[in-house]
Design goal:
246 residues, alpha+beta, 9 helices, 5-stranded mixed β-sheet
Length: 246
């Protein structure tokens, strides 16, 4: 399967170990929290291990829940079932967390922005397809998006705002070169760090190597981040209402 060069270079190569990834993520305010390109701050809970589908389909399934972090008191969540196709199972080294967790999380991030998950106070489990469409068979790499430079800066600002400034530790460092974000966005870590340099000069963050501390400029754009969040959530509600209406 051919795919664009930018996505190919930014995907995770599962043959290369990344021993520092877990340690770097543990230094952030919430290691289980990720933001989407559409501006949704999410905390993931995954129910390991995978199990075979009970519907008769040739799928391996991982159940999980995402919690919307923009207003924790609201208690909004979305339950999902990440359905890995047989081809995807065969090309991954294993279905252990070190190989499959980023793929599941990034597939759910993509689905959330596409309006395929609705956030409710009580869960209604919805299927998320994880197929070989995300795999380059020549390189053995997985990709999801093809973010351009403008989208990269926008993503980083949303990450710094929701997972940093609006977190329990607003002055804590966030890891900008996370390989899971690189896989999700389809870029190399250097591209994210290059985008972050521009944000640092604009007062959005203070850079510390591959990490950044949220800056004062983020608070001035709170209305934008809230509007982006609402737009993405409204998209999901509209899609569900349309489906119910036939």
């Amino acid at each position: 399967m051919a795919k664009p060069p930018q996505a190919e270079t930014g995907a995770i190569n599962y043959l290369l170990p990344m021993p520092s990834a877990a340690e770097n993520r543990r230094q952030t305010p919430d290691p289980a929290a990720f933001v989407t390109l559409g501006g949704l701050p999410l905390r993931f809970e995954l129910e390991w291990p995978f199990h075979k589908s009970t519907s008769g389909a040739d799928l391996h399934v991982l159940h999980g829940t995402i919690h919307l972090l923009s207003d924790p008191s609201a208690g909004l969540r979305a339950d999902f079932a990440a359905n890995f196709s047989q081809v995807m199972v065969q090309v991954l080294p294993s279905l252990a967390p070190e190989h499959a967790e980023s793929v599941a999380i990034n597939a759910v991030r993509l689905a959330a922005d596409a309006g395929r998950l609705e956030f409710l106070k009580s869960g209604k489990r919805l299927p998320i397809e994880v197929s070989s469409r995300r795999m380059n068979f020549k390189t053995g790499k997985v990709y999801f998006l093809e973010a351009d430079p403008g989208q990269l800066q926008d993503f980083l600002k949303k990450k710094l705002f929701w997972l940093g400034l609006r977190s329990r530790k607003p002055d804590a460092r966030l890891w900008l070169a996370d390989p899971w974000d690189c896989q999700y966005l389809g870029v190399l870590p250097d591209a994210l760090l290059h985008s972050a340099q521009g944000l640092g000069g604009g007062g959005y963050c203070r850079l510390e190597g591959e990490f950044a501390v949220p800056g004062p400029k983020l608070a001035q754009e709170q209305e934008y981040f809230t509007a982006e969040l609402k737009k993405t959530l409204d998209h999901a509600v509209a899609k569900f209402n349309q489906a119910l209406a036939g």
